[in-house]
Amino acid sequence: MLDAKATIDFNAGRLICSGDWCLPTLSILMAKLEALTFADTTTLVWDGTAIGQLDSAGAWLILHWQRRLRVRGYQISHQHFSDTHQKILDLVSAAYPTEKIKISTALPNLLAQVGRVAVGLSMGLLRYLYFVGQLTVSLVRHVKGSARWQPAALATQILRTGLQALPIIGLLSCLVGVVLAYQLGVQLQSYGANIFIPDLLGLSVLREFGPLLTAIMVAGRTGSAFTAELGMMKINQEIDALRTMGYLPDTLLILPRVLGLVITLPLLVLWADIFGVLGGMVMSHAMLDLSWHAFLDRLQHQVPLRALVIGLCKAPVFALLIAGVGCFQGMAVTGTAESLGKNTTRSVVLAIFFIILADAAFSIVFSWWGL
Amino acid sequence: MTQTAVIEIAQLGTRIGGRWIHRDLNLRVMRGEILVLAGGSGTGKTVLLREMILLRRPTCGEINMLGFSLTKISRSQQQHLRHQWGVLFQQNALFSSLTILQNVIFPLRRFSLDKTICHDLALLKLKLAGLGADVAARYPAALSGGMQKRAALARALMLDPTIVFLDEPTAGLDPGRVAAFDQLILDLRAALGLTIVMVTHDVDSMRRTADRIAFLGEGKVLCVDTPEKVSQHAHPLVQQFFHNV
Ligand SMILES: Nc1ncnc2c1ncn2[C@@H]1O[C@H](COP(=O)(O)OP(=O)(O)OP(=O)(O)O)[C@@H](O)[C@H]1O
Ligand SMILES: [Mg+2]
User: Fold this and answer.
1) Is residue A17 part of a domain?
2) Which ligand 1 atom minimizes the distance to the CA of B44?
3) Model confidence, pTM
4) Is the ipTM of this structure higher than 0.90?
5) What residue ranges do the domains of chain B occupy?
6) Can you give the residue range of the structural domain that contains A171?
7) How many other C-beta atoms are found inside a 10 Å radius of the C-beta of residue A18?
8) Mean pLDDT throughout A105-120?
9) What is the rounded CA–CA span in Å between residue A328 and residue A312?
C-alpha cells in the first residue's frame, strides 16, 4: 500500500487515470492534477480503465476535481469505470460534502482576553466561596443530627490519607532531619557550639519544617488524588447518579475527605516531627559525636513545648486548605480528559501556594502575640 | 464473494479472574462478509473482539488474521495490521479533548495531507455516518449518545479499512437511524469490499445485514450460519435469544 503508484495523464481530451487512487497516493495525485493544463478543448473524458484500487478518498478526489473543472466551464463525462469503482463513486457523490467548516483564525482581542481571564478568576473565587459555604451548611446539618454521618467513608479516608502515607512521610522527614543536622553541624562545629544543635534542630523541625513539609507532601499525594477521583466520577456521571438517588455528594464524598484529612494531618505532622528529630539525632551522633542521652536531654530542656503545639495547630488549617482545594477542583472538572489533568495540576499548585501563604500568615500572627 | 478466510480463530481459550470466558472457540471470518457476533450479555463478545484487535492476549489458542498469527507477530507486522482495520468501541472512545472534526481526521495523521483535504474527507465520512458539518466543531461531551456513536463510526471508517470491527454500533440509535446504518454497512461492503465483524443485540438489524451469524454461548461458538438457519437452531440459548422462550 505504502509504495502505491498512481498517475494521471492528459491526452487528446482524455484524462487517463492509472494506478491506485487511494489515501497514500492522494497528495501526489493532487499535485499532478494541479499541474495539468488542458489546451484548446472544452470537453474532457475521465477515463478510469487503468485504475487499480479506488477508495473513498480517491473517489472524493475525482469528484472534487470534476466539480472544479465544471466550474471552469468544461464538459466532463466518465468512461470505463468498473462496476465496483462506479459504486464507490456513487456512494461518495451521495455524501459529497458541500458545506465548508468555518474555523475562525482571527487572533483573539487582547482586551477581551484580559477581561475574560479576570471574570473567570473572580467567578472561580465566587464558586469556591459557594462551595465552602455549602460544605459548612452540610457540616452544620451533620452536627445538628439532621444528616447521617458516614463513618465507613470517613474511616476509608483516614486509612488512605493517614495510615498509608506513614512510610513515605516518615522516610522523607527523617532525611530532612539528617540534612538539617548536617548543615547546622557544619556551621556550629566551627564555633565549637555542637551542643546547641538539639535546640536549633528541635525548634525548626517542630515549629516549621514538620508541618510545612508534611503539608506539601500531602498536597502532592492526597490533594491530587481527591481531584482525580472526584473528577473521574464527574466524567462518568457517578456524581449525577448519586444526586438522582437523593444522596448529596457533600455528605458521601466531600465531607469524609475533608474531615478525614483534618484528623490525619495533625497526626502525620506529629509522626513527621518524630522522624525529623530522629534523623537529626542520628546525624548529630555520627558527625558531631553528640551522645543520644545528651541530645535528648537538651531537646527536653531547651525546646519549649510551645514549638510542638504551634506546629500542630497549623496542621488542621493546612488540611482544610488541601482538602478544600482538592475537592473543589475535582467537582469543577468538565467532561474531558484534558480538564481532569488541568484541574489536578491546579489543585496541587494552588494547595501548595495557599499552604505557604497560610504559613506566612501564621508567622506574622504568632510574632504579634509574642509566641 | 471469494471464499478466503481473513480471520481464523482456532481452539481459543480465555481465562479471566479464574473463570474461562472462552473455551475451545473456533471461528472463521471470510473476506467481504458481514459476520455478526451474537449472544447473551456477558458471553465474551467484547473480549473476543479485543483479542482480535490485539488489545488482549488469549490465554491459549490461535488467531490468524490476513495471514499473520497474532500470537507470534512482530512489532512492525502489528503496525501493518493495525493500519488495515477500523474499530468502533462499545463506549465510543472518542478523544474527549479533541473536537469531532479532529477526532475523525485523527487516523489521517500519517498521510501528511493538506488540511482542507482532510476536512473534506472528514465531512464526507461524517455525512456517510449521518452527521452534518454543524457538529464538526463541537466536542464529544456536547453530543448526544447516538451522535457520539455515529462520530465514532465515521472515525472507524476514515481509512476505508479492510476489516471493520463494530461493537454494538446501533445501541442508542433510533429505529430509523438503525435502518440507515444497516443500509450504510451494506453499501460500504458492496462498494469497498469491506469485511465487517459486528457485535449487536438487535435481531432485526442482524437479519438485514448479516451474511452469517456466529452465536456465542457457553464459551464457544454454538453455531455459525445464515440468519434464518441460526434462528432455527435447536440450542436452548439460541432459542431464548431469538424467540424469548
Ligand atoms: N477486565 C475484566 N476483568 C474481569 N472480568 C472481565 C473483564 N472483562 C470482561 N470480563 C468478564 O468477561 C465476560 C465477558 O465480557 P464481555 O464484555 O466480553 O461481554 P459481552 O458479551 O460483550 O457482553 P455485552 O453484550 O453486555 O457487551 C463477562 O462475564 C465479564 O464479567
Ligand atoms: Mg460487549
Assistant:
1) yes
2) 18
3) 0.80
4) no
5) 98-160
6) 148-368
7) 16
8) 87
9) 25
